[in-house]
Specification:
two-stranded antiparallel sheet; 69% helix; 2 domains; disordered N terminus; single chain; Arc Repressor Mutant, subunit A; mainly alpha
Length: 227
């Protein structure tokens, strides 16, 4: 089990307390598909699994509801957010407004350490097995791309939006070889540009990467594959 003081985790978010550990565990369960859309989250079961009291678990569930990863029904039961096509389209519109600028700022502020981390995460991603391993590596690369952004709220907001959308975007990666090849090329290009300090170019590659996924989603909506 992860150490609560271990710092950045697979989803790129820091763990600093028992409630943060519980929240990060839930994020990873959602992100990997272990917890699926509309599946209920049971407070007592998770507390037992983590070996902690129900209080930090309750706080974690509340925090993830605030972030939009969990939702409560009229009985107060928490379940995994299941976005509609419209929800995902909105998420990608917001990400297109935020993420390229965050990458531009992060690359401009880059250090030797942040550059090395981008290179390392690209290598991990390119060697990752499909499924949960690839998903974790994908999130880690995108987190590394914005790690040098000033402040913490913008990176955390972006990663929260990614957590809401990536489990569904992965279906494009797994079922469409052409889309998968394009995404892989984008990942390499953005990492190379970031390492070279090409802030505007890296930002545009990230924007193109997001537009590619959003366009694929728009096509599915138009064909009434997803509503």
């Amino acid at each position: 089990m992860a150490d609560p003081a271990a710092g950045p985790t697979k989803t790129g978010l820091a763990v600093t307390s028992s409630s943060a550990l519980a929240a990060e565990t839930l994020r990873q369960m959602i992100f990997s598909g272990q917890l699926r859309a509309r599946e209920f989250v049971h407070e007592q079961q998770l507390a037992r699994q983590l070996g902690m009291s129900r209080t930090p678990v309750r706080e974690a569930i509340r925090d993830l509801c605030t972030q939009g990863l969990l939702v409560r029904n009229e009985k107060g039961q928490a379940s995994v957010f299941a976005p509609s096509a419209g929800d995902l389209q909105e998420i990608y519109r917001i990400r297109l407004l935020l993420e390229p600028d965050a990458v531009r700022e992060s690359v401009a502020n880059r250090s030797a350490e942040s550059t090395d981390e981008i290179r390392r995460q690209l290598e991990v991603l390119e060697g990752a097995a499909p499924g949960a391993e690839w998903a974790a590596a994908h999130a880690a690369l995108h987190r590394a791309m914005i790690a040098a952004t000033a402040g913490r709220r913008l990176p955390e907001l972006i990663m929260s939006l990614r957590l809401q959308s990536d489990p569904y975007a992965r279906m494009f990666i797994s079922t469409d070889p052409t889309f998968r090849e394009g995404a892989a090329a984008d990942h390499r290009q953005m990492a190379v540009q970031a390492a070279a300090g090409l802030a505007d170019e890296a930002a545009e590659t990230v924007a193109r990467h997001l537009r590619r996924t959003k366009s694929r989603l728009d096509e599915m909506v138009e064909r009434e594959i997803w509503t």
